[in-house]
Automatic annotation (TrEMBL):
NCBIfam families: cbbA
Active site: 82
Residue positions binding Zn(2+) 1: 83, 180, 208
Protein's name according to its UniProt entry: Fructose-bisphosphate aldolase, class II
Native source species: Anaerobium acetethylicum
Keyword Transcription regulation: no
Keywords from the named record: Metal-binding, Zinc
Pfam families reported for this sequence: F_bP_aldolase (PF01116)
Superkingdom of origin: Bacteria
Obligatory cofactor(s): Zn(2+)
Residues holding Zn(2+) 2: 104, 134
């Protein structure tokens, strides 16, 4: 069911101090499980696809599969492309029907990031598609993307304001100290930058690296202005752990649908846990 755009949903979240959950899904089962969690909690949800998932399925095929699920849902389900560094691929996903695109030009110098993000925005906006941009370097691994911890850099306020104003992106993902993947230590997070951005730019702030953050960290990030929170690794864990557990518990059972059900329920409960947290004040 389509009710609001990506930007309208994020603006609403920003104004009312909650966050929209954005979950990286990688097949039909994971997408269905995340949507079921959202339907039970009656909240809007973003299904994110990595560029690796897009390449695996093909743009038309993946959009058709997700769009069909989105249409049938009782809540607003938005289809978003996560961390796309390739302008042509971003355009191909827009042509295929994605609702929003994250153009990740964070590895470019500021000027070039602005220029490339602007090009994506110029293609997206006339088509009614929203764009998320990034500044700074978020450490960790996100499918095809890898940033070593020593290369991670937080965004700064001045560059962030300039980037958002000049590029025209609808939502902004600053590197604030969170990381993709599993945390090996306690992350040092710049909560103040999130709060300053909430006040000083109109674009809602996106928090990457949701897996493994403590509940009070989520709450503080959202209270300070995080309006979209990304969760990927936890969903992948749910899938792989679910496969392992089912096989361990049922070594001789030859019922793929029973295994799918088990994994699906596991992913649903992980998504549901995060959605409840993002809605909590
Ligand atoms: P995690 O893999 O840490 O949940 O991060 C997800 C993310 O930010 C996707 O862009």
């Amino acid at each position: 069911m389509k009710t609001k755009t990506f930007l309208q949903e994020l603006q609403l979240a920003k104004t009312n101090n909650y966050a929209v959950g954005a979950f990286n899904i990688f097949n039909y089962l994971s997408a269905q499980a995340v949507i079921r969690a959202a339907e039970k909690l009656e909240c809007s949800v973003i299904l994110q696809t990595s560029t690796a998932t897009v390449k695996k399925f093909g743009t038309q095929e993946l959009n058709a599969m997700l769009r069909q699920l989105a249409w049938g849902a009782s809540v607003n389900v938005m289809i978003h492309l996560d961390h796309c560094q390739d302008v042509e691929m971003a355009k191909a996903c827009m042509d295929a029907g994605w609702d929003s695109i994250m153009f990740d030009g964070s590895h470019f110098p500021l000027e070039e990031n602005i220029a490339k993000s602007k090009e994506v925005v110029a293609y997206a906006h006339p088509r009614g598609i929203c764009v998320e941009g990034e500044l700074g370097k978020i450490s960790g691994v996100e499918d095809e993307l890898q940033v070593e911890a020593h290369n991670a850099t937080n965004a700064n306020l001045e560059d962030s304001i300039r980037y958002v104003n000049e590029s025209g992106v609808d939502a902004f993902a600053p590197a604030v100290g969170t990381a993709h993947g599993v945390y090996t230590g306690v992350p040092v997070i710049n909560f103040d930058l999130v709060a300053q951005l909430k006040d000083q730019i109109s674009a809602p702030v996106v928090i990457h690296g949701g897996t493994g953050l403590e509940e009070d960290v989520f709450k503080r990030l959202i209270k300070n202005g995080g309006a979209k929170v990304n969760v990927s690794t936890a969903i992948k864990h749910g899938y792989i752990d679910g496969c392992k557990e089912f096989i361990q518990e049922n070594p001789t059972k030859l019922e793929p649908l029973a295994m799918d059900r088990y994994i699906s329920e596991k992913i649903e409960s992980i998504a549901s846990y995060h959605m409840r947290l993002f809605r909590a004040r």
